[in-house]
Every structure is written in C-alpha cells, then in structure tokens.
Input
Amino acid sequence: MGISHWNTHKDYVARRPSTGGLLKEPMPADPEDFKTQVRHIDSGLPIIVRKVKKAKTTAVVFGTRFGRIDDSQETGTPRSHYLEHVLFEGTQRRKTVQDINDVLNSIARRDNAATYNEATLFYIETDKGADARRAVDLISDQMANSTIRRYGVENERRPVWQEYASDLEDTGEVAYDALMGSLFKGHPVGRPSNYSHRAVNAVTRAELLAAYRDKYTPDNSAVVLYGAVNKELIEAAERKFSSLSGDLRPTEVLPAPLGQSMGEVEIADRHFRQAKLIMAMKVPPMNRASGEREQMALELAVEIAGTRAMDRLRWDRGLAYGAGGWQETGSTYAYVALSTAVAPSNAPEARRIMYRILDGMSSGEITPKEFREEKEDMAEAIKVPNYGVLGGAVNTALNHLVYGKTYLLEQSPKILDEITLDNVRKVASEYLRPDRSLTLLLRPGR
Output
C-alpha cells in the first residue's frame, strides 16, 4: 500500500503515473493491442478492457476518483489513504485481513493499492484464467462489501502514520511537498501531503464509512481488465461488480489559477546531501475538454528542455550527475519543470544555465534537429510501451478517472504525427517562460 502523489510523470503514451515499481521490460505491441473496449454495466460502472495478444498475465484494477485533493478540500484528514488500508481489513464474506491475504497469496504475482492526488487504485496481476477471475471476485468484494469494523480502523492507524513518517525521511517526498506548496499555494493540491500524527489520530470510523458510501460509487469509479483477457473474465467482472451501488457526493475543486508564479524559495533540510534545484511553471490542466495536440506538443518542448539541461549541466560543465524535465497534470492543476541536483556551491551557476535554457525555449530557439529527434523518441515509445501489463492497467485506470481519456493510447500516434515544429515553438513560448517560473532550492541544513 502506498501514497503516490504524482498523477503523471514524463510519459508519452498515457501520461504514466508513478507506479511504484510496476514498470517492466518493453513489450512489443501488436496493432490490435491499442484498441480498447469500454462496457457499462446497468449501474453505470465502466469496465475498460484492453487485450494484449502476447500477454501471459492479467491485471485487474479498480479505481475511484477519490484522493488527497478531496481530503484537503473537505476534511483536512487523510481519509482516502486511510480507507485504502482499511478495505483490506475484512468484508462480509472474508471476515479478517488474513482471509483476504490468503486469497492474494494464492493468486497474485503482484498486488497493492495506492492513493494519488485525485484517485485511489487497487490492483492485482495474476496468471491468466481462473486466478484472474478470483482476483475480480476479491476486489469486487472489497469495494462493495467491506465492513470497516472499528477494530480494523484502529488496527491500521499506526501503519498509516508510519507510512507518512517514513515519507518525511524521503528527499523526493520532501521536495514534492515543497514544490507543490510553493507553486499552488491556496489550492488543495498545494497543502502538505504528509499528514501529522494528530491528523491521522483524528480520522474516525464514521468519517471512513461516509467516504466509502459517497465516493466508492459506480459513477465515480472504473474497472480495468488488461492483458490476457477472455470472455469469461469480462462476464465475471460484469456480474461481480454489479453489487457496487450508491450515489456520488462529488468534491468541488476549482482549477488552480495560472497567473504568475515568479519567485524564489529556499528550504534547508537535514536529509539533503546535495542541493536540489527545480524551476517550475504552471500550465493549463488536462481534462476532458483540453486539446490533446497542445498537451503532446508541450511534452515535446519539455523533453527538449530536459535534454538541453542534461547536456549543459552534466556533459558540458560536469556540474551535475543528472538533469531533466517533466510535467505533471491533473484535472485541476498542472505544471512543467526542469530539475537537477548539484553541490550547494554550484547551485547559482546551475540556476543561471537553467534560466538561459528556458529563455531560449520561450524565444522559439528550437532547432529542426532537436524537434525531429525528440519526436522520433516519442514515436518509438508509443510503438513499444516501456511498461508491462500491470503498469499499462494502472495507466489506463488513471487516464479514465482523472482525465476522461480512455482512448488516449489509440489516438496518440496520429496526434503525434500531426504535430509540427511551429506547434512546439508556440507552446514553449507561451508556457516555458523563465519570468513566470518558480525557482525552488532545497539544500542541506537543519
């Protein structure tokens, strides 16, 4: 179980979330693998099916559009993550956590659950056939029939807090909280993600029962069947998940305002051995109405900027071991960033170099060679996805829940082919502007 704050991170095909080690060796794709079926059962719950011809395993994913942003907006307590834990504590059929673990131990190659900024996912990867049908039976039971007993709530209180406490020792989590808090101050995604011991202790059983009833509903959730999928599995999913019911009580979250985010923030933290330098800019969030071509053109622009950062900071100057660019986008917030880690004494020079990179990008100084190479790399990534069955299933679930882009994978090759150098220059000049950037420096210190 775990928290994954990054909805997306530097992905060409389906804006891959941080999948916590789910990624596997590249899987050559058959053209038929890009086709997706979306079936709705009577309750309205979508069951998304993506068959992969060469797959030897099956991934079953249940996701609900309920995450950290909902908690920040509504209660200020970690209901979504806490509930992710408690749903393994027993159902009406499987009375104890051991009953659930016995099933998982007998069928699962890999299984887990994760809470994201805007969604919570539960997933199992199994051998194809009967084990996959048992995975459907287990997850549907957890989602529709969990008892959320008082004992289970108390039993998970310490593990939930310990997970947050461990994140306080993780420089990546510290950097993420600092970046989001500085870039999106006043928006729910900008509030601290590592809840205090007091906030964890404040979570009540009644609060979790209400969230379970109000958020784990057919119109707020989705099921993904991915990999080796046959008719029997689809029918089992349609039958088992028909027991999920309820009416959504949505969380109202306004989009984060774009505006200017110019400024500098410096934070000292004892866990850092080097200085971490990030230059970030807010961009329009991806949602059901946003233009896919502009989003993909922006990805290309960020990749070009990241390649320049690596070339100039690592290969030309030897200032850093690595550098790069990324973007994260949700339904109500989004940003792009360049980052590197350097010795504290080299941070001022690294900042000047990164500023000049962004200044050149925003001035349209992108060569045809840079554009061609990054576009070829992206096209290859689409042809041969660098994730396996479980990673692909997680991507598909998040795309549907957060972005409403179930068919994104099928559309990507055609959209990419249509993008021109002028398209990339246009988005770079609009969004990769150093005068609208936030510079965050995290350095060693008390």
Notes: Residues 4-26 have pLDDT under 50 and may be disordered.
